[in-house]
Amino acid sequence: MIQEAKQNYRGVLCVHCRQPIPLPKSIAKIESKEAGTDHASKAELGPRVYTLRCRACQGEGLYTESKFIDVEGTPRVRQTLPRKASPMLRPSGNLSRAANG
C-alpha cells in the first residue's frame, strides 16, 4: 500500500467560522526562534498578539501565541477578490471639451 504523506502546518482557529488559519512565514519564523529561549524572558515582554485574516470568511481576529495549534492537511488557498476600477479612470470618450481649448 502507498501511504500518503501527511502535511502539518502551524495555525489558529478562526474566531468567526472555526476554520484553520495558517500562520504567515514571518510569525512562524519568530516562533521557531523563540522555541529555544527560556520562559522567563518571554514573561518579561508579555504576550504577543497578532492580527490574522481568515481565508474562508475574510474575518479578522486577534490571536496570541497560546492559540497556535498544529493543523493536519494543506493550508487553504487564499482567494483574491477582483479589484474594482476607480471611478476616476473612465473612458475619455464621454468627456466634454472646454470652450476655449
Please supply descriptive tags for the structure shown above.
three-stranded antiparallel β-sheet, 2 helices, 17% helix, elongated
Give structural notes.
This protein has two helices and five strands. Strand 1 (8-13) and strand 2 (20-22) form a beta hairpin. It is of the alpha+beta class. It has a domain at 8-75. The strands form two sheets. It has a three-stranded antiparallel β-sheet, with no helix packed on it. Strands 3-4 form a two-stranded antiparallel sheet. The mean pLDDT is 78. It has helices spanning 25-34, 39-45, and strands at 8-13, 20-22, 49-53, 60-64, 69-72.
Biggest sheet, open or closed, and with what strands and sense? Answer: 3 strands, antiparallel
Radius of gyration over C-alpha positions, nearest whole angstrom: 23 Å
What's the total helix number? 2
Report, as a whole number of angstroms, the end-to-end distance: 80 Å
* Strand tally: 5
Strand content: 15-25%
Shape: elongated
* Order of SSEs: EEHHEEE
Backbone structural class: alpha+beta
Helix content: 10-25%
Mean pLDDT over the residues: 78
Major sheet: arrangement of strands: 2-1-5
The unreliable regions are none
Short description:
The chain has helices at residues 25-34, 39-45; strands at 8-13, 20-22, 49-53, 60-64, 69-72.
Can you lay out the helices and strands and say which pair or pack?
Blueprint: E1 8-13, E2 20-22, H1 25-34, H2 39-45, E3 49-53, E4 60-64, E5 69-72
Antiparallel strand pairs: 1-2, 1-5, 3-4
